[in-house]
Amino acid sequence: MKRCDLSIIIASYNTKQLLEMCLQSIYQNTQGILFEVIVVDDGSKDESPGMVRKLFPKVRLICNERNLKYVGTNNVGLRAASGRYGLLLNSDVEVKPGAFVTLVRFMDAHPDAAAAGPKLINPDGSIQQCIRSFAGVFPMICQTLNLHKLWPNNLVTNRYYSDIDYDRIQVVPHIGTTAFIIRRQTWETFGLLDERFEQFFGDFSYCYILGQHNQKIYYVPEAVVVHYGSQSINQNGIKQIRALHKALRVFFDIYYAPRYLRPIRWVVRIGIRMREIFKVLEFRLSRDKRVITGPGAPFLKRSS
């Protein structure tokens, strides 16, 4: 059986209205390729599955029997995918015309590309900084202590936030899975996302592993997706802040800690714990109720 070109995989959790808008934008703005849409619902309580069944009968709907979190839910979709490429897509996005055709054609024209991501923009058209680097332990400590906020555009944390030209096609160390196309050979060779990370850092660890195997990840600005931003994780902010920092500790322990002496490991772990305490306090006191607030974070959606 001939494979379709693209399997679009949407991990869904309690974002019914945004999911409907996302699916509408896919079907309205994707022509010229053979594609399937797989929605994997992770136990939504807002009638999202019913909406999908009623309004989008072409969608392959999979409902998890238990809550698998973001990473596990995306892996369910990849296992079910029949496409030459899989595209992980958040439910809180709007796909611009031709975005997915552009990504598929780019991957076809660049057989060295293991994966790629599009340009992400805010609803007002401004660019979301979606590129990160693996900068090492010292920039990680400084980022943990929010040096990027106390001293914007400093040379240390800029190494982490990858100050790049967002209008140019280029190989990048990391790009998030808000919209992330993966060659089938990539996940069949190097595996799926690491489910030890559940909600956060699954994309970071996956890009890190690809980099360790000299696999190229591209940024493709001609493909554009609007990202409304972190709507699922913002539903339970403090819990997710704690989960984020737990994932950060796991990432450090797996990939960075073995390189360093024990005192440095403890400095980083203490710094992560301090940052978690600060972020929880900041969340309680601030009007900004986003879990992700660093450079390039999606705008806060304010009620009118």
Report on this structure:
Strands 1, 2, 3, 4, 5, 6, 8, 10 and 11 form a 9-stranded mixed sheet that branches. A two-stranded antiparallel sheet has the order 7-9. The model is unreliable at 300-304 (pLDDT under 50). The protein has 2 domains: 6-129 and 166-230, Spore Coat Polysaccharide Biosynthesis Protein SpsA, Chain A (Alpha-Beta Complex), CATH 3.90.550.10; 234-285. The protein has 304 residues and is an alpha/beta fold. Helix 5 crosses helix 7 (155-161). The chain contains 11 helices and 11 strands. It is globular. The chain is 41% helix and 20% strand.
Task: Please specify the SSE layout and strand pairing.
Blueprint: E1 6-12, H1 16-29, E2 35-41, H2 48-55, E3 60-63, H3 69-80, E4 85-90, E5 93-95, H4 99-109, E6 113-121, E7 131-132, H5 137-144, H6 147-150, H7 155-161, E8 170-172, E9 174-175, E10 179-183, H8 184-190, H9 202-212, E11 216-227, H10 237-256, H11 262-285
Structural key phrases:
304 residues; alpha/beta; Spore Coat Polysaccharide Biosynthesis Protein SpsA, Chain A; 2 domains; nine-stranded mixed sheet; 11 strands; globular; disordered C terminus
CATH homologous superfamily caption of the largest domain? Spore Coat Polysaccharide Biosynthesis Protein SpsA, Chain A
> Residue-averaged pLDDT, rounded?
86
Low-confidence stretches: 300-304
Count of discrete structural domains: 2
CATH architecture of the largest domain: Alpha-Beta Complex
CATH class of the largest domain: Alpha Beta
Number of helices: 11
**Outline type:** globular
Distance between the termini: 51 Å
Strand content: 15-25%
Largest sheet: 9 strands, mixed
User: Structural class given helices, strands, pairing?
Assistant: alpha/beta
Q: How big is the Rg?
A: 19 Å
Q: What is the strand tally?
A: 11
Helicity range: 40-55%
What is the H-and-E element order?
EHEHEHEEHEEHHHEEEHHEHH
CATH fold title of the largest domain: Spore Coat Polysaccharide Biosynthesis Protein SpsA, Chain A
